[in-house]
Amino acid sequence: MKINTQFKKLLIINFGMTIIALFMVACSSHMSEAYETLKKSELSGEELFQKVFSYEAMHAEHFESKLDLAQLYFLSGQYEKSLEYLMRAESVVGNAPRNKDGKRMIAQMYGTRAELEMLLHNYESAITYAKKSKSADKIAGLQYKYIEAHALYVQEKYDEALTLFDTLFSVIPESASNRDMRTYMLLLAKRNRANDCKKIVERYFSTGAYFLGFGQFASSLYEKCGDMQRAVLAAFLDYEYASCFGAADEYMFLKRLDEIEKEFVVDDAYKTYESAVKFVRSFFASQELEYELECDFFVKRYISAVKKSKAAVCTESDIKALLAVENYFSYFPSYYWHTYNAFLQVRPDAYKDFVPVLEKIIVLGNDNVFIADARKELGKIQGLSAAQSQHLLIPSEVNLALAQYARTRNDNALESIFELLALPDNEYELYALTLLRKQRNLLNLDDALFRRRANASSKLVERIDFILG
User: Fold this and answer.
1) Of residues 442, 431, 436, the one with CA closest to residue 468
2) pLDDT (tens digit, 9 = 90+) per residue, 111-137?
3) Which of 10, 110, 211, 333 could be bridged to 133 by S-S, CB 3.0 to 4.6 A?
């Protein structure tokens, strides 16, 4: 169980999907019949959680329910509660099923503890529990050796960490998380293993994950490998990502391109470098420039298609080109905004079909510069004014607000939902209204609803009464 902590803010706590998936994976034919029946029931996520919570409380010697709760609390970021239930599970580990499933569960218990100790900066403890996980089940526990490698890295035991990463990537590369790849590529770069590092960089690109500075890192690496065009394109990628969050300076970026061009040496290698600089500069031109590159790099394909979108000359082939690179740009709000505009140019009558593209911009966080425009476009589709549109919440935001209220019992967590419910009829309001009515008793919403009703508009009073009815 690996968690990409850099993008934790993008984690949307969906109790139904998380709990049911977690419990079905851990199902064992040798557990008590009652617990097996419980886990296979068709209860909703929160109901299932409450049933398992009650079951564990009434069965002090039951191992699996403690492990399930520990993992669930870990996934939802409640680390103190996770540690509590991990310790409970370990205290009755002798009651785990005595079969392959039991060994796997014990490995998961120690592996989760290793991950938890890592997050708490207890690196030696993380190593200890990672090794225990591997001892419990050589197959299921092997993935947790990645945690051991991270613990070695943060303690600056670089050679030991690199040796372990080399082994793990040769045996179970599919188990590597984005965090594993980031750390491994940094180690490879430290030891000047450029070609090995390039393989991991390109694999990381293909996951769609991104972090500020990755483009510059990749740019330096490509330059070391003699790939000048990719070096320039990767540097542009960092600019594009930063621009999504208001952290890029177009003037300074173009100035740097000018400086690079002046440094060119007249030989074949730098001629390819120069052509890449001119191609990237054309992205910022007020009119479309017919300038192409020979290299088939995903950044090049993105720039070519977006240039068409910005010039309002998109075709179906340009849309296909944009869709083909989505897996590389899934953390870029700009990608989805340009794709939405391309759709509008080519298929203006089918704008309702592009709603998921706009919703993805919102999923990428409130700090991105396209989010207000995305809400405005969604509101327009729903028949709302620009001002009303800013109170729209997509389903994942409603789910997140309810989860926050469930954790904190703070009425403020519900205020954005109330603002949504006060809007004229629309699909997003209907989703929230239906969900609150369904979750009313599970989340004990009545008191909060009555408090808000006392100072609500007539429309909101109507909606609250429906929930309470």
Assistant:
1) 436
2) 999 999 999 999 999 999 999 999 999
3) 110
